[in-house]
Amino acid sequence: MLDKGLLILQGLDDLQEQIDERKEQVCGKLRVLAPLGFGNDYIAPLLGEYKTMHPQLDVELELSDNPNWAKHHRWDIIIYIGKLNDSSLKMITLASNQRFVCASPMYLERKGCPTTPNELTRHECIALRENNEDVTLWQFEDENGRPDIVRITPTLASNEGRVIKNWALSGLGIIMRSEWDVQPQINSGDLVRLLPDYSLPNADIVALLSSPDKERSARISGFISLLKARIAPIPWK
C-alpha cells in the first residue's frame, strides 16, 4: 500500500509539473546529482544562482563520487566526470577535461622528476578511489598514440579529491587529477605538471539525462543552458 501511495503521489507531482511546463514556468523540483568536489565548487553555486532566477523552483542536490546507477531515474540531471558505463543515458557534453599527473616542487626537489611513465613505479604515488575505475592503472599515450601503461603502488589513497590534492601540495607524492581541479595550482606554481609529452584519457564533464523527454522540461533545459553558459568557456584555464 505504501509503495502504491508513493507512486500515486509521484504521478500527481509529474502531472503538476507537466501543467507548469505547458505554461513554460520554471517551477517544481529540480533534482541534481554531482561529484563531490566539482559539485561543491561549480554546481552548488550555479544551482543557487538558478534558484534566485526562479524563486518558485525547489532544488535538491546530492553529492557523490560513486552514484548508484540503478537509481538514475531519481535524478533530473546527473553531472558526471570520467568514463561512462551506462550508454542508455542521454549525454550532453558541458566541457572538455584533461587529466594531468602532477606533484609539488617540494616533492620533485626531494625525489626528482620522472621522464617516462615507467619511472612512476619508483616514485611515491597517491591514488584517488572515487568510482569503479582501476585507480592504480595509469594509462598513458605517447605523442605518436602508442599506449604506455603503468601499474602504480600507491603510498597514500583516499576517496576524496581534495584530500589527495592537499597531500600532493604538501610534498607527499604524485597525483593524477582532472584539469578542472589542479590547473589553478599549476598556474600558480604550487603544482608542476609531469610527463607533458604523454597524455591520459580525457574525463569530459557531462550532464546525463535518464530520458530524452527530460530535455524538453523548462526547469531542466534552463539549468542545462546555464551550465553551458558558465562552464563551456572553461573557467579553470
Textual characterization of the structure:
The protein has 237 residues and is an alpha/beta fold. It has two domains: 2-96 and 204-231, D-Maltodextrin-Binding Protein, domain 2 (3-Layer(aba) Sandwich); 99-194, 3-Layer(aba) Sandwich (D-Maltodextrin-Binding Protein, domain 2), CATH 3.40.190. The protein has six helices and twelve strands. A five-stranded mixed β-sheet has the order 2-1-3-12-4. A five-stranded mixed β-sheet has the order 9-6-10-5-11. A hairpin with a 5-residue loop joins β7 and β8 (147-151). The protein starts with a helix and ends in a 6-residue tail after the last helix. The relative contact order is 0.20. It comes from Vibrio aestuarianus. Belongs to the LysR transcriptional regulatory family. Pfam families: LysR_substrate.
Q: Ends: how far apart?
A: 53 Å
Low-confidence stretches: none
**CATH second-level architecture of the largest domain:** 3-Layer(aba) Sandwich
Q: State the total count of DSSP E strands.
A: 12
In what order do the strands lie side by side in the largest sheet? 2-1-3-12-4
Main beta sheet:
5 strands, mixed
Secondary structure class reads alpha/beta
Overall geometric form: elongated
For the record, the CATH class of the largest domain is: Alpha Beta
Counting structural domains, the number is 2
Can you identify the CATH superfamily of the largest domain?
Answer: Periplasmic binding protein-like II
What percent of residues adopt helix (DSSP H or I)? 25-40%
Write the H/E string, N to C.
Answer: HEHEEEEHEEEEHEHEEH
The average pLDDT is 88
The Rg value, from CA coordinates, equals 21 Å
CATH topology of the largest domain: D-Maltodextrin-Binding Protein, domain 2
Query: Helix segment count?
Result: 6
Report strand %: 25-35%
Family: Belongs to the LysR transcriptional regulatory family.
Organism: Vibrio aestuarianus
Protein name: LysR substrate-binding domain-containing protein
Pfam family, one: LysR_substrate
